[in-house]
Amino acid sequence: MPTPLEVRRITPEEHLAYVEARTAAGADISFLQVPSWAGVKAEWKHASLGWFDGDELVGAGLVLLRQVPKVKRFLAYLPEGPDIDWTGARTGRDLADWLEPLAAHLKAIGAFAVKMGPPVTVRTWDADTLKAAIADGTAQRLRDVPADTTDDAGLAVADRLLELGWSQKADTGAGFGDVQPRYVFQVPLAGRTEDDLLTGFNQLWRRNIKKADKAGVVVEHGGFDDLPAFHEVYVETAVRDGFTPRGLAYFQRMWRAMTAEDPSRITLYLARHEGRVLAATTLVRVGQHAWYSYGASSNEGRDVRPSNAIQWAMVRDSLAAGCHVYDMRGISDTLDPDDHLFGLIQFKLGTGGRASEYLGEWDMRLRPVLARAVEGYLNRR
Fold first, then answer.
1. Which SUPFAM superfamilies match (predicted)?
2. Tens of pLDDT, residues 32-78
3. Does residue 1 lie in a domain region?
4. Based on the structure, what is the number of domains in the chain?
5. How far from chain centre, in Å, is Cα 55?
């Protein structure tokens, strides 16, 4: 019988060393689960946690802690984590071996509830499959389309979580899921060349990339001092698309925290035309996974296709850096052309990548009375 695992706090340095060792061995760990993300989320308290088998560190995660007003109790949140052996394939351990000591540790430090996002993919759909479903017009949601691949081990994790007392919001398909997106769009890079990738783009994407180049759109890397230029276009995007923008200080904090951890962790891209910034993005990289994390585009100059040019630059750089995945992040579940979110998946489908469904976010009440009271308060707000 395996020895029980112990969860205890580890230093950011220990956590980062663990992440680097795991990603060097091919593991896929979210940028939301590296120590620097705690520096980005300054409004939360935080801790790096380690799972120990004796003296050996065998799992790790970043937990963010949000305090309830006037009470020394916390909501604990592990976005897109933790990094443990979810299916048992690596260690043969049952999921309870990992999650029971986690719950006990969080309760002991004052958490009343915990939310986590298992980094477990359960279904994927190729671009051609989704294009055919959209053209056919019979599918309204991703779930209406038979997946190209289904991970039975990943689906079994959901069953085990329910058995262990975890719960999940109903998958209504509205918006992007929970706090982090349940459905994402990714472009596989492993074993491919630039020509392979460009050939995989649809005709419109290829034409727009050429149009941007012919028009003189130049995509360049920026630094900390260029963040105000990014933010100006980002605010313009927020007004146009109807969302509340983050302040410039948030992106400055992100830049400082991530570059201090690893100079290649975050890259700023600026697409200029005749000296004007028409599009700007940030790319985050951990190991062999690159994420398009924030994007913005001006209302001006859209005819010279700066957004296509900047995406192509990020894809090429990710490939050159040895990444296996270029992750375009969240999409909604909709395949309905009349839905206001349909344009997002339509844009990303043009890259010829694939849509993936993760297991979604799961919750456990550690102090049920307080948890229900807080949930009721938030619902009333």
1. Acyl-CoA N-acyltransferases (Nat)
2. 999 999 999 999 999 999 999 999 999 999 999 999 887 789 999 99
3. no
4. 2
5. 31
